Amino acid sequence: MSTIEQILKSRNKPKEKVDALAKEVKENRISIEQLIDYFEVGSVSEKGSCVEAIERIARDKPEIVVSHIDFIIDHINDQAPKIKWETARVIGNLSQKYPNEVAKAVPKLLLDTKDAGTVVRWSAAFALTEIAKNNLKLQKELVPRFKEIAEKEKNNGVKNLYIKALKILEK
Fold first, then answer.
1. Tell me, what's the pLDDT at 1?
2. What sign does the CA torsion over 93, 96, 97, 102 have?
3. What secondary structure does DSSP assign to 19-70, as a single string?
4. Which residues contact 52 (CB under 8 A, 6 or more apart)?
5. CB 150, CB 166: distance < 8 Å
6. Which of 79, 91, 157, 164 minimizes the number of CB atoms within 10 Å of its CB?
7. Sign of the dihedral through C-alpha 46, 158, 70, 96
8. Which letter does DSSP use for residue 98 in this model?
9. Residues 87-94: what's their mean pLDDT?
10. Could you give the 3-state DSSP secondary structure of residue 165?
11. CA distance 83 to 156
12. Mean predicted confidence (pLDDT) in 138-144
């Protein structure tokens, strides 16, 4: 049984499993490629844990994740809500150090702004606003979109992400 499988099949709480996976990758005991390979064959729950671990890695060590950005972008519009929101958060976490690389995620993230799930919309808003803050070329395109989305958005938490970003971007 692989280390990834041992962690995911353990009786630990989901958060502990995610933390353990992220730690194993950050400390070079397993590779991010192994985590992605396991994602491809795992259950929906295991896939969610793998992507959440990648999100944690992207927060602390984005250089480990950036070479797999196409994999992340491919899953932004996944059927499983958890995968949608975690991949969006990965993009948001990568945007500060890699603003040009994350630009190609924008069309898929914009689709998730219309998702029925609040967490998916919040995560898409997080990623899009982080991209706009860090990518000057995309700011002009995204600012009008943020205004449109904020007007239609019913959830205040999601709406506030756009409003806060607009205050920063329109200075």
1. 84
2. positive
3. HHHHHHHHTTSS-HHHHHHHHHHS-HHHHHHHHHHHHHHHHH-HHHHGGGHH
4. 18, 82, 86
5. yes
6. 79
7. negative
8. -
9. 98
10. helix
11. 23
12. 96
